Structure formats: structure tokens, C-alpha cells
């Protein structure tokens, strides 16, 4: 995908790994492995050529010819690279370091990738007594009978994790109900919605009548948040499936433009997000908050909650977040987006932008 998108910076990383693995397994190849190695060498050589490293592109092309001396196209490439190197000014030198393109939208990518690879700068509970774990009880009979374990992950933005929000049987029921309706996920683009490369997943929407479990989850979410989660004051439950490589690059859940399709429901912006982890993931899949510089690993059956808007109605820029790529496993989540309207007596407005 990176190669086809001419993102040679990332195609080089993948292809280098593939070529290295083929070299290490030489002598134990299956019949089709030599062709796969040649394809990898071919694409890798051209990627380096496009990034300006002609010398290494030549080396890789010669390695290709070692395995397939009769390939005329690669032989022509070797001749072309040799000719280019012969005319290259001595001051430049043949080697060019592969560097990330200097593009504005990549400014957050450095943090995004760092958080996804290392879980970033996680909040330290012992450093801030306000970050703690506790049982949530309220006047709701639901929570009196069954208190919920809450872990405060961050104060700015306010992000909490509710452990054991859902049980295994409920999670499987949601996944099973949503599976027949899964389609490629889309994002709001101007006044329309479309599939994009920076969101790779499948999703389906479930009404509370789709399965009794959905209605139970709505009741539980309302008890925990104190918010009105009935339509049109909240959206239907969105179930999302991320396979291997599935991800959602940095984005906001709330609309940042008055022309967003989110306003078609006439129920305001998305004031809060309630995201339920329906499965575990062997590797990857964390939820990374870019500007706040922390990420939350997938915790099966837990639910993550945060406010997208300040109490004055303005979007909270600290909620820029991403779904990290799934490396091993199958990630399922269910999103409940709660709208502004209908919350007037549940979350009063404030003129203070810091609220």
C-alpha cells in the first residue's frame, strides 16, 4: 500500500524487513519464495531510487540479477543506475540518507508512531494523587448493586477507564449482531462521508432494538456518565472491527467544521465519547492521545470515556487521538457518541473555556 501511494519512506521499511527475512532463510525456500524475493528486491530498489539513493538501488538490482540473470528490465535498470552514478557530482556522493518527507501533516505522526510503538509517556499515578482508581457508586440502583471500577487515566483531557464494563457473553453478542452489517468505515469529508486510507476498518451501526444487550449497555452508560443517551441525543452504537494493520490515524471525534455531516441530526456536536473494548489484542491497537502524550492499551471488556467538548461548547484540542495499528490479533470496539443537545441539565454549560 505504501509503495502504491508513493510513500517510499514507509515502503522501504517494510521491504527491507521482507528482504532480510528472505536472505536469512536462504536454503529453506519454497518454490515460490525466490519469486517473492525478486519482487521485494525490485520494489525496494525502485523505492531507494525514488528517495535518491541510487547507489543502493544499483546494489539491490544487481542482487536481483544474481537470482534471475535473464531479466532484461532489471538489466536496463542496472545500466541506467550506473549511468546516473557516473554523471553524479563528486561533492554529492552516491549515498543519500532516507529521511521522512517534510510534510506538515506529518508533524503529529512522529508522536503518533512513538506512542503506538512504546505506549509513550504514560501517566504516573504515584506522581499525581488525582489520578487514582476507585469504585463508582451513585443514586442509580444499577451502580449501587454493581459498583463500577474506574481508573482515571488523565485529567487534561479528562479520560477514564471503566474496568469490566461488559462481560464476555455481552461482548460476543454485540460482535455477533454487528458482523452481518459490517462495511468499510468512512469519515466525514466536507459535507460528505467517504472511505479513506487513514482509517482502515469495518463498522456497523446497531439500534437498541437490534439486541437486548445494546439496550442494557445504554442503561449502563447513562448511569456512569449521567448523560442522556437516548436518540437523538446520542448516536446508535457503532461497532468497529480492525484486522491486522487496521488503524485510524490522529483525528477528533467531534466536528471541527460547521459544514460537517455530524450536524445533520440537529442535535449538536459530539460532547463525549464512550468506547468499549469488545476483544483483546495480542499486539498493537492502543488508543493514543497525541497532544496529551499518552496511550491506553486495549483492555478487554473495559470502556474508555472522555469529553470532546469544553463546557463552553468549544472543541477540546487535547482529545486528538488515534487507533494504533493492530499488529497481531483482531480488535473489536463499540463506540457510543453522545451529543450536546439533551444534556443541558446533565452537564451544565460554562463560559469558562478551561471547564
Element order, helices and strands? HHHHHEHEEHEEEEEHEEEEEEEEEE
Number of helices: 8
Largest sheet: 9 strands, antiparallel
* Secondary-structure class: alpha+beta
Strand proportion, as a percent range, falls in: 15-25%
Distance N to C terminus: 42 Å
The fourth-level CATH homologous superfamily of the largest domain is q2cbj1_9rhob like domain
Broad shape: elongated
Organism: Latimeria chalumnae (Coelacanth)
Keywords: Dioxygenase, Endoplasmic reticulum, Glycoprotein, Iron, Metal-binding, Oxidoreductase, Vitamin C
Cofactor: L-ascorbate
GO molecular function: iron ion binding; L-ascorbic acid binding; procollagen-proline 4-dioxygenase activity
Structure description:
It comes from Latimeria chalumnae. Keywords: Dioxygenase, Endoplasmic reticulum, Glycoprotein, Iron, Metal-binding, Oxidoreductase, Vitamin C. With 355 residues, this protein is α+β, with helices and mostly antiparallel strands. The chain has eight helices and 18 strands. The strands form four sheets. It has a nine-stranded antiparallel sheet with strand order 1-2-3-15-11-18-9-8-4, covered by helices on one side. The chain is elongated, with a radius of gyration of 25 Å.
Keywords, please?
alpha+beta; 2 domains; vitamin c; 9-stranded antiparallel beta sheet; Jelly Rolls; 5-stranded antiparallel beta sheet; P4HA-like; 355 residues; Prolyl 4-hydroxylase subunit alpha 3; iron
Amino acid at each position: 500500500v505504501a509503495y502504491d501511494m508513493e510513500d517510499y519512506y514507509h515502503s522501504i521499511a517494510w521491504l527491507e524487513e521482507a528482504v532480510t527475512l528472505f536472505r536469512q532463510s536462504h536454503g529453506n525456500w519454497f518454490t515460490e519464495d525466490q519469486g517473492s524475493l525478486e519482487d521485494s528486491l525490485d520494489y525496494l530498489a525502485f523505492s531507494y531510487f525514488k528517495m535518491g539513493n541510487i547507489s543502493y538501488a544499483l546494489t539491490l538490482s544487481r542482487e536481483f540479477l544474481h537470482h534471475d540473470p535473464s531479466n532484461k528490465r532489471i538489466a536496463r535498470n542496472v545500466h541506467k543506475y550506473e549511468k546516473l552514478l557516473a554523471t553524479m557530482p563528486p561533492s554529492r556522493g552516491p549515498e543519500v540518507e532516507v529521511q521522512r518527507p517534510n510534510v506538515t501533516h506529518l508533524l503529529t505522526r512522529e508522536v503518533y508512531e512513538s506512542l503506538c510503538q512504546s505506549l509513550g509517556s504514560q501517566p504516573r499515578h504515584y506522581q499525581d494523587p488525582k489520578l487514582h482508581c476507585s469504585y463508582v457508586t451513585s443514586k442509580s440502583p444499577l451502580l449501587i448493586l454493581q459498583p463500577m471500577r474506574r481508573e482515571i487515566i488523565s485529567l487534561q483531557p479528562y479520560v477514564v477507564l471503566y474496568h469490566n464494563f461488559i462481560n464476555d457473553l455481552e461482548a460476543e453478542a454485540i460482535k455477533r449482531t454487528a458482523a452481518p452489517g459490517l462495511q468499510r468505515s468512512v469519515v466525514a469529508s466536507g459535507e460528505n462521508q467517504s472511505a479513506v486510507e487513514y482509517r482502515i476498518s469495518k463498522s456497523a451501526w446497531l439500534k437498541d432494538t437490534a439486541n437486548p444487550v445494546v439496550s442494557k449497555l445504554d442503561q449502563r452508560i447513562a448511569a456512569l456518565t449521567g448523560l442522556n443517551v437516548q436518540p437523538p441525543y446520542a448516536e446508535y452504537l457503532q461497532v468497529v472491527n480492525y484486522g491486522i494493520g487496521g488503524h485510524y490515524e490522529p483525528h477528533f471525534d467531534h466536528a471541527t467544521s460547521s459544514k460537517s455531516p455530524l450536524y445533520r441530526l440537529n442535535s449538536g456536536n459530539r460532547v463525549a465519547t464512550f468506547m468499549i473494548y469488545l476483544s483483546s489484542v495480542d499486539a498493537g491497537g492502543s488508543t493514543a492521545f497525541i497532544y496529551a502524550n499518552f496511550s491506553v492499551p486495549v483492555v478487554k471488556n473495559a470502556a474508555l470515556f472522555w469529553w470532546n467538548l469544553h463546557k463552553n461548547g468549544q472543541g477540546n484540542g487535547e482529545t486528538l487521538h488515534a487507533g494504533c495499528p493492530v499488529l497481531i490479533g483482531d480488535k473489536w470496539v463499540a463506540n457510543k457518541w453522545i451529543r450536546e443537545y439533551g444534556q443541558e441539565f446533565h452537564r451544565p454549560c460554562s463560559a469558562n473555556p478551561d471547564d
